[in-house]
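PT: before anyone asks, these are the final sequences, not the draft ones from last week. 538 residues across everything. Please model them as a single complex and drop the result in this thread when it's through.
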Amino acid sequence: MSAKNKEPYQQAYYPPVPTGFTKHMRTSLPWQLWRFLVINFKIFRLLGKSHK
Amino acid sequence: MARILILGAGISGHTAARYLGKWLGKKHEIIVVSPNEKWNWIPSNIWVGVGQMTEEEVTFDLAPVYKKINVAFRQARAMSIHPEGGPNSDKPYVTVEYTLPEREGETETIGYDYLINATGPKLNYGATPGLGPDAGYTTSVCTPAHALHANEELQKQIAAMKQGEERTLVIGTGHGMCTCQGAAFEYVYNVDHTLREEGVREKARIRWISNEYELGDFGMGGVHITRGGYVTNGKVFAESLMVERGIEWIVRAAVKRVEAGKIHYEMLDGSEHTLDFDFAMLIPPFAGQPLKAYDRAETDITSEVFAPNGFMKVDGDYTPRPYDEWSKDDWPKTYRTPRYPNVFAIGIAFAPPHLISKPMQSPNGTPINPAPPRTGMPSATIGKAVAENIRDILERGATELTHTASMAEMGAACVASTGSHIFKGTAATMTVYPVVPDYETYPEYGRDMDLTFGEIGLAGHWMKYILHHVFMYQAKLRPGWSILPE
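LR: through. Structure below.
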């Protein structure tokens, strides 16, 4: 069975698609715990700036 | 003793009621009028719409909660406001009609010293023939009942796919002037996740349709974020999410009419198309609640107090101007009405001065652009600022309103989280600061590039799960609620 060509110039042809490493980091516990702290910090800053 | 009357108990009205009850409940009279007996944490309706949460997990009875802080509750719908009083008295009042089953249809007038209009949106399904779960062919997640219905319909599709049938699911916005794309955005990812969990994803064609010019606009004209060493656009982030999940998208589309299994839509270039579907969840356009306003002589002044879309005019600059001349200063800061200093409108009930996204229309004259988002975090921030100002007037003799909550000075977050497993869920987190671009402070992109970001991963999933429980805890006025962030 021959491989099917991927058709170019379609909607799904252009946007970036995550690599295996990127997908891995999305569920990596140490990295995500760090990101959790960073996101919390940023959202607290965002909330602080929103209340005057 | 002053009486503060709050119309509506959604996110903004309930926030104002909580703080006013805490600060003033023992010295002044606070009354909340809402047609619904329950409070609803609307962002979690998304999870109800895929069967991951029950109605009970996203709602609770309001009356017992208000009792804790001496706030009176009337289950009724506001019909008209009389900010100058009537022929027999100059005391302002509101006419309400009870929705409480024992008193249904009964009307009452309630006088006030301060009025907060937090009546939220009218879900305007009627603007698109065939839209909505009641008289149409599409589902919705705007209320718990609608979300339950959406899940029932979704489960029917899943059952059919398990029998080997193929299905087309369409999710997005149901009119050219919709807002709240974020809710549909969260729902489409949850539907995709649910189909994968059920092992039927390959049987489904999922299609997004919206009135955004590009994906990721969200009614805010899109955002720029820093990713992978580049400043890129939220469009790239949103398209990547769609492609990764195999979801196709149609943007610049105004849904004009829906019939059984078929959506008719017009594109920004004026072309007209149809889209077949087996299941559709389309967010309706919002309008203001049908409140009337009368002056002391009982002359109808609705058109002076409210904008044509039914939202209440406050301290924004409503002078029509071209897009290039829009400014952050156009946006309301205190939400006080210009004509009546004791009347405020908060949350979705206030009239935005103009769009945030650039106005667009098709050659046929059909407006196709998202309306400004005011749900969630902005609603709560506005509700608290107005409560603080009323407290300062009554308790501290303030003559100026010092607490402000301009949407050009506040942020918002949208977390599209899927799955219930703590280690297997995922989420796309997007934040923006400020909601209305401020090119004076941030000349390059109009936004703070550190606080405006998007990322995908477990961290956002944990965040969303925690936020659900924190906000439910806070809204139920459990111990320590007032020290939790809004």
